Amino acid sequence: MDKLICANIFVPLRTGPSHKSEQGSQILFGEKYTVLDRSVNWIWIRNEFDGYEGWLDDDHHLYYESGQDDSSPGILASRTEFTDGHGHALVLEAGSEIYNFNRKENSFTIGKSTFIASDKVILCPVNETVSQTAIKFRNCPYLWGGRTSGGMDCSGLTQLVYKLHGYTLSRNSFKQAEIGETVSFLEEARAGDLLFFDNERGSITHVGLLLDKGYVIHCSGKVRIDRIDHQGIYVESSNRYTHRLRTIKRIEVRDKL
After folding, report:
1. Which of 46, 157, 189, 222 is the most exposed place for a label (fewest CB within 10 A)?
2. What distance in Å separates the CA atoms of residue 55 and residue 16, rounded to the nearest whole number?
3. What CA dihedral angle connects 10, 11, 15 and 21, to 10 degrees?
């Protein structure tokens, strides 16, 4: 099985070998993936970061051999623009992974290519709390399967925020709910805890992140901040509850402040 490094800004992973199939997730620049199978013009891959599997269009299959860059990557804390030796721009999203970072030159090398940043490169872990990181993505649009500031879904938001703090969460909300320490009551929860919500059948379908007492940040239509109580998410503008609270989980992440 080929182990490769994504060399595209990001690429969609689809549930079937067709552009008509829904996007289940994305691979970000620098994330490693393994080729599991092939179809006509499509490859079935596994993202090594979170284990998510999906179909990738062979035309998007830009990569470096992972054996060329076995050093530990740095994770970009924010959207950053780079240029290569030919002046071509490369804009990488927060959560992208870069190799062989040269702090003095403000550049990184992957394969045989070197990219220089236009501004100071900030790598993770970031010097802020989980909540502060989450708020930076406020108003990002909703996109099913998205993991970037250009579009994300609810679990994409929480996964990205925790990645920027050095912790790997699963891709889907129901899988994220399987880990961490259970917090019995909302009154005992603290900023940064994950809040999970279920549907009428009791299945976990949504996740958010607790801010200060009484508020949650989550992605529903866009990344937004709403009220939260023991019943669920309350949207004041529509005067109704939109998501029913099921459980609360705490992931021990050492905030830098």
Report:
1. 222
2. 6
3. 120
| pLDDT tens, residue by residue, 4-16 | 999 999 999 999 9
CB-based contact 179:171 (threshold 8 Å):
no
As a whole number of angstroms, the distance between CA 168 and CA 130 comes to 13
Span 130-250 CATH architecture: Alpha-Beta Complex (3.90)
* Cβ(185)–Cβ(213) below 8 Å: no
Mean pLDDT estimate for the chain? 93
Q: How far apart are CA 226 and CA 230, in angstroms?
A: 13
Q: CA 58: distance to chain centroid?
A: 23
Among 2.30.30.40, 2.40.50.140, 3.40.1010.10, 1.10.287.130, name the CATH number for the domain at 3-68. 2.30.30.40
Residue 252 scores a pLDDT above 90: no
Q: What is the pLDDT of residues 52-105, one digit of tens each?
A: 999 999 988 888 887 766 678 999 999 999 998 788 899 999 999 999 999 999
| 159 and 169 Cβ atoms separated by less than 8 Å | yes
The order of strands in the sheet holding 107-110 is 89-92, 80-83, 113-117, 107-110
Nearest alpha carbon to residue 159 among 124, 205, 194: 194
Phi-psi region of 202 (alpha: psi -120 to 50; beta: other; left: phi over 0): left
Whole-number pLDDT of residue 2: 72
Q: Helix (H, G, I), strand (E, B), or coil: what is residue 156?
A: helix
Per domain, the residue ranges of the chain are 3-68, 74-117, 130-250
| Residue 5, beta-bridge partner list | 32, 64
